[in-house]
Amino acid sequence: MKIITVHHPHSFSSDDFPPMVMALGYFDGVHKGHQRVIKTAVEKARERIVHSAVMTFDPHPSVVLGHKHKHIHFITPLEDKKEIIEGLGVDYLFVVRFTSEFASLLPQEFVDQYIIDLNVVHAVAGFDYSYGRMGKGTMETLPFHSREIFTSTTVPKLTEEEDKVSSTKIRDCLREGKINNATKLLGRPYRMKGTVIHGEKRGRKIGFPTANIELAHDYLTPKNGVYAVRMKIYDKWYDGVCNAGFKPTFRNPDEYSLSIEVHLFDFHSSIYGEEVYIEWFERIRDEQKFSGIEELITQIQRDKETAMSYFSRN
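The chain above was modelled as a monomer; its predicted structure follows.
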């Protein structure tokens, strides 16, 4: 997949690219609904014997359009989004830098410069896709703005158990710790990338060594608590149990940094500095404060057994 970063105003013309079928959207999460849009574009491109493409934006439009400084936590940061989209068989990924000037384009200007000038012969987007200043352009107006140079397909709403599959719904599920629901909407386990760093090594002292993970991007971390997870190291997946939170049993009240610690089953190697992936599967319990070490050890053993039981069934 060829990745092209586009800065506004760009100087591309239709001569710079082969004919393409392009999927349009921000695609945070690249969830089941997004996948349907992208797969539709790939299929249409195959039918027409042309290239497939996806257009996304960076940073998140709300960072530019919001009235206050807004720090966004992502379901799929841009680097992860690239990997997932490439896995869907896409030929070109256009990453458009979302700026105030770009956001001010009239709907016709957006279509002229970012669809027609990129040699798009067919555009695909979800039913709720909008474009141009104030989102005034919609899938209903796209045929008019196309100047009859390209055609388009509108992908209808996708539902899961009567709920619309959406990034907002997935965010709500993660914040509420409803990992199973988020997995259904995403069509895959929720995944994060990070690096193993040195921690306080308390887990090792009590018989449950943990890998402390420094996240590679601004991920939306699931609700604080204990989870059954899998972690990928050296291209191999290992089952484990993860505590995401503030370690209330040991926490200094003045320190509120979030920690993600993973205890892997039957794993004994030193992995400091290694890049890892974590996939979240089942929420076991809330994070809680214990009266002492023995109580903590007993609970961790229970958590480990609960997670092992989950993986033996799934």
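The radius of gyration is 22 Å.
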